[in-house]
Design brief:
This protein has 4 helices and 8 strands; from the N terminus they run βαβαββαβββαβ. It has helices spanning about 10-25, 40-50, 105-115, 160, and strands spanning about 1-5, 30-35, 55-60, 90-100, 120-130, 140-145, 150-155, 165-170. The strands form 2 sheets. The chain has a 5-stranded parallel beta sheet with strand order 3-2-4-5-6. Strands 1-8-7 form a 3-stranded antiparallel beta sheet.
């Protein structure tokens, strides 16, 4: 049981519009874009392709910065942060797929600050599903949706999932039943 809320064409349109908005409002001089791994990194690359001039792109792994790190299992999947440029005094566009509680963004901000002192950080999310636990809000949003607590927003991207779409699905309780 899933409900499609964004199709492939809408994703492309959102990313083109956001790229134009970022370029107009912030400019691309001294701007870098950092995607939160995994899907945020893919979205960051796609946004960069729409700019009039390419800017530095980095990829942030926040595994060790999560406040639930000790609860995510004995063998967490840890990636690498790939930011091969200095972020000091840069305008950083932080990119993620879904904004929910705000905890992922808090972890990403901690990780960024460990790398340097940016001029500012602006947040783009493809989907804002609400239900925040921390006082974090995006500067740029693809789509805001109302999703129940027992539902999840899944962003599917062709680079990982073989297709582009965003769907809402029921959460599973881990025992084969929906919540």
């Amino acid at each position: 049981m899933e409900r499609k809320i964004i199709c492939k064409e809408e994703i492309e349109k959102i990313l083109k519009e956001i790229s134009k908005k970022i370029e107009k409002e912030i400019g691309i001089k001294d701007t870098v874009i950092v995607g939160i791994k995994r899907r945020g990194a893919i979205l960051a690359d796609r946004i960069n392709k729409n700019f009039s001039k390419k800017i530095p792109v980095g990829y942030l792994d926040i595994t060790f910065y999560r406040d639930d790190f000790s609860k995510i299992g004995a063998h967490p999947v840890v990636g690498t942060t790939e930011i091969l440029f200095n972020i000091d005094d840069k305008k950083v566009i932080l990119v993620d797929d879904v904004l929910y509680t705000g905890r992922t963004i808090r972890a990403a901000l901690d990780a960024l600050i460990d790398l340097g002192r940016p001029k500012f950080v602006k947040l783009f999310v493809l989907v804002d599903r609400g239900h925040r636990e921390l006082p974090i809000s995006p500067d740029f949003v693809g789509k805001k949706v109302n999703v129940k607590e027992n539902e999840m927003v899944e962003v599917r991207l062709k680079e990982i999932d073989k297709k582009d779409e965003v769907v809402v699905v029921k959460k599973w309780n881990g025992k084969g039943k929906t919540l």
